[in-house]
């Protein structure tokens, strides 16, 4: 309904007229908004809107505090019922005053009785804390016990009386009478509206499309997007591209360029964790996607070749999926290899993880080589920590492969020390030498003893030495106990030895 009202408001604006500059701009964009608005915003739509507005008041429930939506003044009988219902509290107080005159004053100390109205049950006299005794009921012969509620804060006992029965006959279940009458009115309204359902559906669809266009325009204006240049050439050239969401969550976002032409179709991006690799390839895909739906894009400039599909293998897993993350990756890459065309964009983020390192290297290397061997490969962006693919001829030598890394500022480029490392989030040509995993672990808040042990193991493995077992006094003492127990067991004569004494000695030492 809000969409229909908004469209009618737009129609009035168009009737008054718009400026020549705006009309010229709309013509240059080839949106045909005015013509389409005039087609969808018809006299029938205005009639439907007036019909609904004349019957329904969506704010009435909030104002009155109960379920009611039909506008006041539409139905005299309904208004009369609602007036009675809304005046019930005062009326029940008057009836209660008459009933209290018949009850002893002793009940004032135990909680003043009341008359209440319960939906679908009717009107009842409520006595608090104590049920009426037999002697009292002989005096009040018109009191008939209905039910009790002894689970709440106060014990309550409900009775039918002559007055409550009279109100039941006079007023009945007034609340549901109101609801039934309103439902009948709304059903009749719906039946009238359905006669114009085709017009309403078309108008709402146009409103949704217009809402999307306005939303894209607003976001583009607020975030300094630029108009991309869609071209039939098979290339992708983005200057200072940004991620549409990530830039809203950080104080400073570092933009990056992307340039993929007929050469360098396959970009392999290495770098530390937390350095922005995944964000970069996602922002490229989002810019390509936004360009194709007619949106401005977050960049200083963008020339985007027509793209038929965007394939992703990003390591994502749905909670309802019955497959592992690695298996999902395999399926996604399989679809990519079978269906990607020269006009496709393929993203792979850490493909090959989740299995043995050797298997992951083989799968990733084989996938990249498949793209290299294609006559006309798609545009491919690969993020990986498996730098072993660059060794031992794992990848084919080809001009189609370009290597990039996310730059890191470190006092000593050959040092893996976790201190004084700054991620620059800037994409530069080259390969990453280190992953700086310890630095990332420190940023994540891992305990110091874990980081110290990890650094020791890393240094030992780099020097091709054997990692020594983590030794503590408790572990050494326990190992010695086990050795002593084994030696005593081997020295024990099973036939002549005292087994009871042997086990007592063993367990005494362990305790």
Automatic annotation (TrEMBL):
One of its GO terms (biological process) is chiasma assembly. PANTHER family: DNA MISMATCH REPAIR PROTEIN MUTS FAMILY MEMBER, MUTS PROTEIN HOMOLOG 5. Keywords: ATP-binding, Chromosome, DNA-binding, Meiosis, Nucleotide-binding, Nucleus. GO terms for molecular function: ATP binding; ATP-dependent DNA damage sensor activity; mismatched DNA binding. It is found in: Chromosome; Nucleus. Transmembrane segments: none annotated. It comes from Solanum chilense. Belongs to the DNA mismatch repair MutS family. Its main location: nucleus. It holds the Pfam family MutS_V. It comes from the Eukaryota. One of its GO terms (cellular component) is nucleus. The lineage of its organism: Eukaryota, Viridiplantae, Streptophyta, Embryophyta, Tracheophyta. SMART domains: MUTSac (SM00534). Residues 344-360 form the DNA mismatch repair proteins mutS family domain. This is DNA mismatch repair protein MSH5. InterPro entries: DNA_mismatch_repair_MutS_C, DNA_mismatch_repair_MutS_sf, MutS, P-loop_NTPase.
